[in-house]
Amino acid sequence: MKKWNYVVSAVMTILGIAMIVMSLPFKFFLSSGDPGPGFWPTLLGSALVVCSILLAVMSTISAAKEEEKEVIFSSPAHTRVYKMMAVAVLFCVAMYVFGFYIAMMIFMPLAMKLMGTESDKTITITTFCTLVAIFVAFQIGLKTSLPAPIFWR
Amino acid sequence: MDVIMQALSNVFTPLNFGGMVFGIFMGIIIGALPGLSVNMGIALLFPLTFSFQGVGGILMLLGIYCGAIYGGSISAILLNTPGTPASAATTLEGYPMAVKHGQPGRALGLSTYASMFGGIFSAICLMFLAPKLANIAVQFSKPEYFALAVFGISIITSVSGKSVTKGLMGGLIGLFIATIGIDSMSGKIRFTGGSSYLLGGLSFIPILIGLFAFSQVLLTVEESFHEQKKIEKVKIDRVLPSLADLKATFISTFRSSIIGTFIGCVPGTGGDIASFISYDQSKKWSKHKDNFGNGEPEGLVAPEAGKNAVSGGALIPMLTLGIPGDGATAIMLGALMVQGMQPGPLLFVEQAPQVYSIFLGLLLANIVMGLFGFSLIRVFTKVMNIPKNILVPIIFTLTFVGAYAYNNSVIDVFVMVAFGFIGYFINKLEFSNSAIVIGIILGSLAETNFRGALMMSEGSFSIFVTHPVCLVFLLISAGSLLSPIFGPMVKKIFERRKVA
Amino acid sequence: MSKKYIALLIAVSVLILAVYGYVSAGSKVENYPNDGDVTVIIPKSPGGGTDIAARGLLQFLREEIDGVNFVATNKPEGGGVTGMVTTANANTDGYTLGMVTVELGMYPHQDKCPITYEEFATICAPIASPAALIVAADAPYNTVDEFVAYCNEHSGEVQVGNSGTGAIWHVAAVAFEKEFGVSFRHVPYPSGTSDIAAALAGKHIDATLADPSGFKSQVSAGNLKILGVMSDTKMQLYPDVPTFKELGYDMIIRAWAALVAPKDTPEEILHKLREGAARLFENQEYIDYFLNQGIEPVNIVGEDCYQMMKEDHEMYGELLSTMDLE
């Protein structure tokens, strides 16, 4: 965890400085003396930088305690998560291009396969049941239409 | 007496009562599904109220209101996914109790009990204390709102879990996210990079769904990797809370109900703020502080009672002053006026039967909601028994639908997924979702009221000190923010003195 | 995935596409509006003033036009801009309509919106709430002129609430300053007029120039009073309140919301809709729906509505260019 704390600290410091920089075009104080649009975000950015420095310092002080906490980001379990993330991203793209329902019919089975479902029957039944349930609840019940394929818009 | 009899006959007509029950049922479903908001449900069913005579339509809307605030906790407890923002704090204790300790029935039972308690308590306050409490609502001006926001932000230290510093960082990021878009105090556009989507700011609900629901999906994908195929069926333990539980949590529930009613009274604040403040206070005064985050019953009943108590509280300024306490009551105000009822001091005099019908309706709605809840707990917990390989993809799909349905926006879905990824990683690094959410919720409340207060005082900071309520809240917040840092230090000093 | 599943997937996809195709291809102008649901995009959150007005309008309009089924959709993202842009870019077959609000006349001048009223064909405007000067009931001034005199004595001290800097009620207040040569302290309440009502009732501010519907309860209860209203004609709800015009000051500022269709929608379709809208005022229930909420309904149909949008666009252009939003 100690290593990651330093990473977090570095990232947050950069974020904090970015916030301050982005707020520069906005006035800190208006001519009337009231705080302007730049006031608050600059404050937040500065506080973030302070906190991240604090984090780095505290990590160094209690180094031993922090070393004990394990943080793993690579293992077979994690690989599955990253695959699922890829599925999610592709789902987003597919939803935008092919519309929600078609995208769902592709990616829900993909997700189920990834989770270890072996029976095709289970996959098909679950996908169609969910599809019908969503259609009834949202399209008919709430009258919210889900994204349509790109060629229909 | 006569008036009460009339009110009773109003409420118990088949159409009105049926409408209310229908409303509660729809409300629970809308509340449980992330992405469907209370306001959306009420706005959708608002035209139906035209077909009702008099208060009947309002009763149905009250049903949705109470049901939805309660329903959000069901998915919060079972799936670590708040169905409404008000249930975000419920995940802190509800989910560990349900999953880590394998007691979903107990968690849902306590949640239902506390929600009912909070709702009924606020209904009673509404009935007997409405005019007095309404005065409080009117006393709140910008310095008080600012102080309340700061107090809310100080709660980050309570919900930060293992690392307060990281919690603060998350909170600061949340506060920053709230600044994106049109700055309504100056009219300037901040941090949108020219995008028209960001003109209205980053939508809150997709971020909530992403941070909580989607990151939980990813976490479950990881954790279930090593699970055996055969899962033990989760035993349904008791549904009704045990006497021991009731005794242990009573003070927490009662205190939270007071907090929730009060927050409901203050226009512009709602269940989300009430639930976090109730949680925080419950933790501060609890003898079992260390068990918080681990399925502590006191920490579960607190946000539940707090958020449902907002329902009665929000009706107080709505009925007495015609000023809505939150977004949902704003719609109900419209529904009331369409039926020819004019909220204000005159309402209580000229249309007493209608007003009492509303009081009675709220009371009844909470009771029926509780009954619904208890009877359906066994059904809800069956959700836990669905094999993960089926449940996870379904929730995955529902998060997409929910994120889209909220604003009919595809970009919201992308935002949801992005925050889901972010949530997954930062949770591993000891960050707290709730801290970020608190920042987003309170960001504009804090900033606009800070600047607004200074606008009113012509730049003089003394306004924060001369308003007593404001000063008190600010001092409590300072204490809250500094205690995790200075508390241990002070303790150490005392211990050294003892040894010496 | 097995071959069988893929085949099934393709079959169902084709089916879905076919259904979509059938539904959208077959609509003819003469059949309007029987060929499907008419989506109406509301660029505000559910439950807000515009949303409630729009839903009410659609509810009653449904009765005036045979066979129509309106489906209201909320699209509040981007401060309402995205919703309005979506309506402008929609299919011109008449099955997608939208609401636009007075921000359409203001935002283009503030670089917040890429389109103007010219992108739309108007159907009708159900509401055009005027700015009203609202003050506490026990304030030491009872007319607009007395208020102006008070402002001159306490220059820069009178606190006037608005719904956000650069938003319409702030613009109204600045227009007032210009017209009368006074100077206010503007206090924004970005969450909406109900916050302003609470602030006025609690005496945290002195006055506001805003749409009177959010203040109806307070006025009826005798806590607040309306000194003047910036509309063409007197308000039905407050017949004793003079208009600024009759007091000699030509000021008309109103927050309207209008039902519109994309620019090139066929005339026959627009005609059907406008005809239906024109009949709305014959329905007393429709009028009562708004009056009960403290909103004075208007029925500005077709060309008149377009004119109103055009006039306001030009007026705001002038006003905003002279305003110095720092």
List the helices and strands and how they pair.
The complex is a heterotrimer of chains A (153), B (500) and C (326).
Chain A: H1 2-23, H2 39-61, H3 63-68, H4 76-98, H5 100-114, H6 120-141
Chain B: H1 2-11, H2 14-32, H3 38-45, H4 56-79, H5 90-100, H6 104-139, H7 142-154, H8 156-159, H9 164-177, E1 181-182, E2 189-190, H10 204-223, H11 243-265, H12 271-284, H13 297-321, H14 327-338, H15 345-350, H16 352-385, H17 388-407, H18 410-428, H19 433-456, H20 463-466, H21 468-499
Antiparallel strand pairs in B: 1-2
Helix pairs in contact in B: 1-16, 2-4, 2-16, 3-4, 3-14, 4-5, 4-6, 4-13, 4-14, 4-16, 5-6, 5-13, 6-11, 6-13, 6-16, 7-19, 7-21, 9-19, 10-17, 10-18, 10-19, 11-12, 11-13, 12-13, 17-18
Chain C: H1 3-25, E1 38-42, H2 49-64, E2 70-74, H3 81-88, E3 96-101, H4 103-106, E4 120-130, E5 132-136, H5 144-153, E6 159-162, H6 168-180, E7 185-188, H7 193-201, E8 207-210, H8 216-220, E9 224-229, E10 254-262, H9 267-278, H10 284-292, E11 297-301, H11 302-322
Structure, described:
The complex is a heterotrimer of chains A (153), B (500) and C (326). By secondary structure, chain A is mainly α. Chain A has helices at 2-23, 39-61, 63-68, 76-98, 100-114, 120-141. Chain A has two domains: 2-68; 76-152, no CATH class. Chain A is built from six helices and no strands. The longest helix of chain A is centred in the first third of the chain and has 23 residues, at 39-61. The model of chain A has no long low-confidence stretch (mean pLDDT 86). Chain B is mostly helical. Chain B is built from 21 helices and two strands. Chain B has helices at residues 2-11, 14-32, 38-45, 56-79, 90-100, 104-139, 142-154, 156-159, 164-177, 204-223, 243-265, 271-284, 297-321, 327-338, 345-350, 352-385, 388-407, 410-428, 433-456, 463-466, 468-499; strands at 181-182, 189-190. A two-stranded antiparallel ribbon of chain B has the order 1-2. In chain B, helix 3 runs parallel beside helix 14, helix 6 (104-139) runs parallel beside helix 13 and helix 9 (164-177) crosses helix 19. The termini of chain B are far apart. Chain C is an alpha/beta fold. Chain C folds into two domains: 31-128 and 255-322, Bordetella uptake gene, domain 1 (D-Maltodextrin-Binding Protein, domain 2, 3-Layer(aba) Sandwich), CATH 3.40.190.150; 132-229, Periplasmic binding protein-like II (D-Maltodextrin-Binding Protein, domain 2). Helices cover 40% and strands 20% of the residues of chain C. Chain C has helices at residues 3-25, 49-64, 81-88, 103-106, 144-153, 168-180, 193-201, 216-220, 267-278, 284-292, 302-322; strands spanning 38-42, 70-74, 96-101, 120-130, 132-136, 159-162, 185-188, 207-210, 224-229, 254-262, 297-301. A six-stranded mixed beta sheet of chain C has the order 2-1-3-10-4-11, sandwiched between helices. In chain C, strand 1, helix 2 (49-64) and strand 2 (70-74) form a beta-alpha-beta unit. The longest helix of chain C is centred in the N-terminal third of the chain and has 23 residues, at 3-25. The N and C termini of chain C lie far apart (61 Å). The mean pLDDT of chain C is 86. Chains in contact: A-B, A-C, B-C. Chains B and C meet through helix 3, helix 6, strand 1, helix 14 and helix 19 of B and helix 2, helix 3, strand 7, helix 7 and helix 8 of C.
